[in-house]
Amino acid sequence: MNGKELIQILNLEKGPEVGIYMQEQVKWMLTNPDGKAEELQDFLVHFKSTRELENYDKAVEHVSKKAHV
Predict the structure, then answer these.
(1) What's the CA gap between 21 and 7, in Å, rounded?
(2) Does pLDDT of 49 surpass 70?
(3) For helices 16-31 and 37-67, angle between their N-to-C axes, nearest 10 degrees
(4) How many other C-beta atoms lie within 10 A of the C-beta of residue 25?
């Protein structure tokens, strides 16, 4: 998928974050040479969910630390 397709499919904003998904796409394609486009899309959706959850956890932890000061 190209960057525009990734933006549309994953509901991303234009910018450097798209490059992260492009890199993950290439890694996935190299490790799954017989993989199908649907599988790649599912992987990227899951990867995005995981990143968002990790970022949310970091934000909550940061706010929590400030609250205890």
Answers:
(1) 9
(2) yes
(3) 130
(4) 19
Give the helix ranges, DSSP H, for the chain. 3-10, 16-31, 37-67
Residue 50 sits at φ, ψ, to 5 deg, of: -65, -45
Cα–Cα distance, 17 to 59 (Å, whole number): 18
Q: Residue 45 corresponds to which tokens in the numbers above?
A: 């959706």
pTM (2 d.p.): 0.76
CA 44-47-50 angle, to 5 degrees, is: 155
Using a pLDDT cut of 90, give the percent of the chain over it. 74
Rounded CA separation 54/59 (Å):
9
